[in-house]
Fold this sequence. Notes:
The structure is a single chain. The chain is of the alpha/beta class. Among the domains are: 235-357, Fumarase C, Chain B, domain 1 (Orthogonal Bundle), CATH 1.10.275.40; 408-620, Rossmann fold, CATH 3.40.50. The strands form 3 sheets. Strands 3-4-2-5-10-1-11 form a 7-stranded parallel sheet, with helices on both faces. The relative contact order is 0.11. The model has no long low-confidence stretch (mean pLDDT 92). The structure holds iron/sulfur cluster. Iron/sulfur cluster binds at residues 100, 104-106, 121, 124-125, 130, 132-133, 173, 175. Iron/sulfur cluster (SF4) is lined by residues 100, 104-106, 121, 124-125, 130, 132-133, 173, 175.
Amino acid sequence: xxxxxxxxxxxxxxxxxxxxxxxxxxxxxxxxxxxxxxxxxxxxxxxxxxxxxxxxxxxxxxxxxxxxxxxxxxxxxxxxxxxxxxxxxxxxxxxxxxxxxxxxxxxxxxxxxxxxxxxxxxxxxxxxxxxxxxxxxxxxxxxxxxxxxxxxxxxxxxxxxxxxxxxxxxxxxxxxxxxxxxxxxxxxxxxxxxxxxxxxxxxxxxxxxxxxxxxxxxxxxxxxxxxxxxxxxxxxxxxxxxxxxxxxxxxxxxxxxxxxxxxxxxxxxxxxxxxxxxxxxxxxxxxxxxxxxxxxxxxxxxxxxxxxxxxxxxxxxxxxxxxxxxxxxxxxxxxxxxxxxxxxxxxxxxxxxxxxxxxxxxxxxxxxxxxxxxxxxxxxxxxxxxxxxxxxxxxxxxxxxxxxxxxxxxxxxxxxxxxxxxxxxxxxxxxxxxxxxxxxxxxxxxxxxxxxxxxxxxxxxxxxxxxxxxxxxxxxxxxxxxxxxxxxxxxxxxxxxxxxxxxxxxxxxxxxxxxxxxxxxxxxxxxxxxxxxxxxxxxxxxxxxxxxxxxxxxxxxxxxxxxxxxxxxxxxxxxxxxxxxxxxxxxxxxxxxxxxxxxxxxxxxxxxxxxxxxxxxxxxx
Length: 621
Ligand code: SF4
């Protein structure tokens, strides 16, 4: 039997699923085996993974990297470490990293874009014009720096915001002092990008003086890993980019370069003309673009030189995106797809050339091979074997799957099959019908509801009819909302928790995952339709690539990703043992065994054509 003090478990009771997960982690650590775990919300994943790991690494030269896709997810890690530290009186050195710009102490950097900020920081360091950096480097400040480092370590495990404020007050660069603490840290909390991005990883590990072979990489919300890795290795170039880059080169006096970019535009246009009539996209070979460009490598060098110069004068350079794309385009064919596509941007035709990665293991394989062990956890890491295959794990991995622990009577999970969002059945009549079903549901919910649609187009097609029928205030998520806009909308929505409001969002949008509505802030989620990827050439190539590699391309490349999004949307409603709520899957396709078998068995799905009575009954009990 596990002893809490031996495994640093800070709570009174270890529940059976926690016991199993902790034992799995302890055994895997001893065998240097990786772990993939599907563990629904409420199991206590973070504590069940961190506690045993802390007990194992405390006197070993091994560091835990706790990596999350969003900064907001760092908080629970810090809180868990504090609990362990205070309960068992153990010294834990941990440091919390976000992007360098967010940690920077300078006050004039808000308007600098990603690369521009890095150039700025490099510049002020080299020219010794950043006092925060100078103070950090100054030998005479060694004692002050060490005292600050000691103070930061001894404070009760700081989050990055607090550390940044204290360092700034002491006039020391927060990023540099964090890197310094990182060298002594047993736990480093960071974003996925710090270790997934091949261009960032090496530099970051060097800064904190760690090696992969002595590092445990814990990936939280790991269902995101497949897409994150693919995105990191994918690039696009559009005719609009080229037009902006041409104008930029002209404006800054790069006449010759502007001529080269003009030639690029001609190549683009002739590739566009080669697209078969009535087709909006086509596969393209590397050579069809590469061979048309004279002095390919020289062009990249000239673009980069111009970028360096232009970034001294303005925030963003369009030439950079061309240089970046040209570099990527020379890459491998295996595991990638090249597509040329006609699109419209603000009613203007836009030709897009893309080089997209199909194979996430191109990033994760080396991490698996080189690290001490990987731990991937999520409430929707389902099916585990798919993640094992796609990310390139071999046999040295433990797969641990758990059921939802929340009381079954606190949730009503319904399939309402009276409508369909199937492409061939879409019509204004069908959209009105969907609006009617949605109104019927939300008008019977005593509180807030979120409706998730597969696309903004479908949401907008339903909106007019729905807003006439809904008795509740209706909010709409906008495309590409920034953090501030998102938070403002959420706060307004939450204010309606008693009278009830409706938020019309999109499955893959801002509120589809990673947003919590604890207590009675959200009573119902309706997932309208199935959020499948566009059935375009990239999706088709993805399916056939996974088919060739794993023999299950249709599920791996199309069905499971949509179901995972659906389950993430559904998961917004019930986040704790006390939460009660209704989750509705609105589409007749949810009846098909092809989709239903992908749902966790513990969902207890019921089918109803008249959900209003069940909803009323659920909320009156
Ligand atoms: S050295 Fe530190 S404080 Fe100075 S610009 Fe860079 S990140 Fe900001």
